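Appendix C reproduces, verbatim, an entry submitted by the partner laboratory led by Prof. M.T., so that reviewers can inspect both the input and the predicted structure.
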Amino acid sequence: MKRLLPIGVILLVLSGIFSSTVFIVREVDYALVFALGEVRKVVSEPGLYFKLPPPFQNVVTLDKRLLTIDVQEAERIQTSEKKNLLIDSFVKWRIADARLFYVTFGGNERAARDRLQALIRDALNASVNIRTVKDVVSLERDVIMNEVLNNVIKRAEPLGVKIVDVRLKRIEFAPEISESVYRRMESERLRVANELRSIGAAESEKIRAEADRQRDQIMAEAYSKAQAVMGEGDAVAAGIYAKAYGADLPFYNFYKSLEGYRSAFGKPGDVLVVDPSSEFFKYMKSPSGK
C-alpha cells in the first residue's frame, strides 16, 4: 500500500499537468493563447489544442456568435426643426477580429456594447439632425437606417467588430411637442380634405355642365329632326289633300264652307254681322252653291 501511494500521486500530478496543457475550442468561440500577457495565437476552428502550462501560456475565449444590442432607453435626437424625437434601435453585431477586439476592449463585452451604443447615437444624430420630423417619421426612414448602418460599420471596423444590421424600432415625439405636432398634423389633414372636397365639387360642376350641354344638344337635334319629319308629313298630307280635293272641286268648296260655318257658329250666342246675300251663305241657300 505504501508502494502504490507514490505512483497514485505521480499519476495525479501528471494528469494535472496534462490537463493544463490542452484546451478545447467550441464552434461558437474564439480562443486567444497568451504568453506572458501577449497574444501569441488566435484559434477560430473548433477542436482540441495544446499549449504550455500556466504561467507560461493561458487561454481566453471570446464569443463569435451573432450578438444583439437592444437599446432599452430611447435616444433623444433633435431634428433640423429643433424638435426632439425619441428613437429606439437595435443592432446585430459580432466579433470579426478577436485579437483587435481584445486589445481594444480587454475582452470585455459590456465595454464593447457601450462603445457601439455611443457610435449608434452619434450616427443617429448625424442623420436625423439634417432632416425634418416628416422625413424621419415617414419619408426617409429606410434611408436613415442605411446611413446609420454604413456609418457604424466604418467606425466599428477598427475596433475588431462587424456590424451586421441596424434597425429603428420605434420613433416617437417627445412629450413636450407631441400635442403641437398632432394639432399641426390634424390641421394639415383638414386642409388636404378641404382641398379634395373643393376639387371634387369643381369636377362635379364640370361634369354636370357637360351633361347639361350634351342634353341640350341632343334635345335640339331631336327637335330639329322632329320638325323636319313633321314638315315632311305636312307636305305629304297637303299633297294628298290637294289631290283628293282636286278630284271634285265643288265638293271641296262645299266641305270648306261647312268648316267655316262650324267655326263661325261653334259657340252658343255667337253673332255674325254679314250680308245674307254674301258669298259666305251661298251653301245655306242651295246645296249646289248656286
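Strands lie at 22-25, 29-35, 38-43, 47-50, 57-63, 67-70, 75-78, 84-95, 161-173. Additional entries are available on request from the coordinating office.
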